[in-house]
Amino acid sequence: MDAILYVVRTGCSWRQLSADFPPWQTVYWNFVRWEDQDVTQQIMDVLRRRVRGRAGRDPELSAAIIRPAAGEVQRRCAKERNCPLTACSLPCARSPWPR
Q1: What is the rounded end-to-end Cα distance, in angstroms, of the chain?
Q2: 69, 99, 97, 75: which is closest to 88 by C-alpha?
Q3: Alpha-helix residue ranges (DSSP H) falling in 1-99
Q4: Residue 48 CB coordination number (10 Å)
Q5: CA gyration radius, the chain
Q6: What share of the chain is helix, strand, coil (3-state, %, to 5)?
Q7: Dihedrals φ, ψ of 12, to 5°?
Q8: CA 98 vs CA 69, 87, 93: distances in Å
Q9: What is the pLDDT of residue 97?
Q10: Fewest CB atoms less than 10 Å from the CB: which of 8, 37, 82, 87?
Q11: For helices 2-10 and 24-36, angle between their N-to-C axes, nearest 10 degrees
């Protein structure tokens, strides 16, 4: 678990895993196995419930933020600016999403 968190925290590749941890192949194999079995999602769900409960909030999520796909934002931007491209490739000050 510590080795997986190290990869997530540092952004290093599996092969660059510190020698303080087991061989990268072993760590990666465990990660893939856990992902296939949704273990990491289950861990996140338990942690979320605990953190929300300790903060005095309902442990279950009550709302979600849904963001349009980046491609849709670019198409709308291109249409507004009468851009000949199907997706605007220029920075747009009015775009709600950073480029």
Answers
A1: 34
A2: 75
A3: 2-10, 24-36, 39-54, 70-80
A4: 13
A5: 21
A6: 55, 0, 45
A7: -75, 160
A8: 13, 15, 9
A9: 44
A10: 82
A11: 90
Q: What are the pLDDT digits (tens) for 70-99?
A: 566 666 666 666 665 554 555 554 444 444
Residue type, 65: I
Q: Which residue has the tokens 């540092």?
A: 10
In the chain, the amino acid numbered 33 is R
Q: What are the structure tokens assigned to 33, written together? A: 């196995």
Domain boundaries, the chain: 2-54, 63-89
CA angle 7, 24, 38 (to 5 degrees): 65
Which tops the pLDDT comparison, 96 or 11?
Answer: 11
d(CA 85, CA 50): 48
CA pair distance 11, 8, nearest whole angstrom = 5
- In tens, the pLDDT along 23-60 reads 999 999 999 998 899 888 898 899 999 999 999 888 88
Identify which of 42, 31, 2 has the alpha carbon closest to the alpha carbon of residue 50: 42
